[in-house]
Amino acid sequence: MAAVENRTEARRARAGASALALSFVKFVLTVATTFLGLLAVTFFIGRVVPIDPALAIVGDRAPAHVVERVREELGLNLPLYQQFVIYVRQAVTGDFGTSVLTTNPVMTDIARVFPATIELATVGTIIGAVLGVPLGVLAAVRRGSIADQIVRVIGLIGYSVPIFWLGLLALVLFYAKLGWVAYPGRVDVVYEYSFTPVTGFFLLDAAMQRQWDVLWDLFRHIILPGALLGYFSLAYISRMTRSFMLNELSQEYVVAARAKGLSEARIIWFHALRNAAVPLITVIALSYAGLLEGSVLTETIFSWPGLGLYITNSLQNADMNAVLGGTIVIGSVFIGINVLSDVLYHVLDPRTRSR
Fold it and tell me: Would you indicate the residue range of the signal peptide (predicted)?
């Protein structure tokens, strides 16, 4: 009897291991297919736009034989499928070509400007999460009340108002009129040469070097664009928090907790919100990814030297290598954050592990 039970347990263990391996393979294939789709989209965009990469490098007045030689060096004379294979191979190795605008490798430029975008998006996400979650909880707990209506209107405005209009309005009010924040940019010209960045994340570098005057100046520069992005993040996070909390507050365990005499605050913050926190992690992660890819207009308005402004300037100068390289990096980060949020979801929610 014991031998039969052991064989049964062994079969179950092998079946579980096989299912886990199959799930992992499917997961890897899904990520690889998504990334390949991203490369395909950017490749065909680069071929459809009416910009000749060879002419962008040598100029419109270059002799025809020079243009043709550059086209051969770039592989533009090859069949389209061969160009795509070369494009994929180079993209996987991080080779996006050379920027026409800066004459540097595109990956070198991206490594220089991307920390500024990450820093700005991180500040925006922190503001959005810190304010959006409590507002969403408040709206759910007081459903149908004036507080609920106010929170929903705040979220509706965040979804509806164009970010460039709100950014310009904020600059006029808080910089030009009130003088509460610094002018557009990342750091004052006074500290531009006295401050030495190490990691590329200026706030972290200034704090590590204990340059508190520089840290304060950096804060005055980042707070307005960060708050603007935080407001749009808040609109999404508060709406989803409200939805999750309404679902949790209607569950039977909440009724049972109230019957046991638990305080309403404990039920809301320690039971309902804890269960709603699992899907909220995915929401916050997607919001963060959205700010990373959607900060182009914000960076342009506030002259923030991040990846969004880099892509904008490159597009205006027909620098397609830089535009496509930046697009691939942002898309890859978006895919990575989605993968991370899925992993965290499965780790934190035991119910998903048996699926």
Answer: none
* pLDDT tens for each residue of 179-195: 888 888 888 888 877 78
> Contact 303/286 with Cβ under 8 angstroms?
no
Q: Two tokens at 235?
A: 């609109």
Helix axes 106-141, 320-348, angle to 10 degrees: 40
- What is the C-alpha to C-alpha distance for residues 169 and 161, in angstroms, rounded to an integer? 11
Write out the DSSP string of 21-71: HHHHHHHHHHHHHHHHHHHHHHHHHHHHSS--HHHHHH-TTS-HHHHHHHH
Instruction: Give just the sign of the alpha carbon dihedral 136, 137, 143, 146.
Output: negative
CA atoms within 13 A on the CB side of 42: 23
**Element housing 278 (H / E):** helix 273-294
Q: Beta partners for 98?
A: 105
Q: Looking at residue 55, what is its pLDDT?
A: 67
Q: What are the φ and ψ backbone dihedral angles of 105, each rounded to 5 degrees?
A: -55, 140
Report the sign of the C-alpha dihedral through residues 31, 36, 38, 41, in that order.
Answer: negative
Q: What percent of the chain has pLDDT over 70?
A: 86
CA distance 294 to 113: 15
Read off the pLDDT of residues 71-94 as tens digits, 9 standing for 90 and up: 777 677 777 788 888 888 888 888
In the chain, what's the furthest Cα-to-Cα distance? 88
For residues 246-256, give the mean pLDDT.
Answer: 86
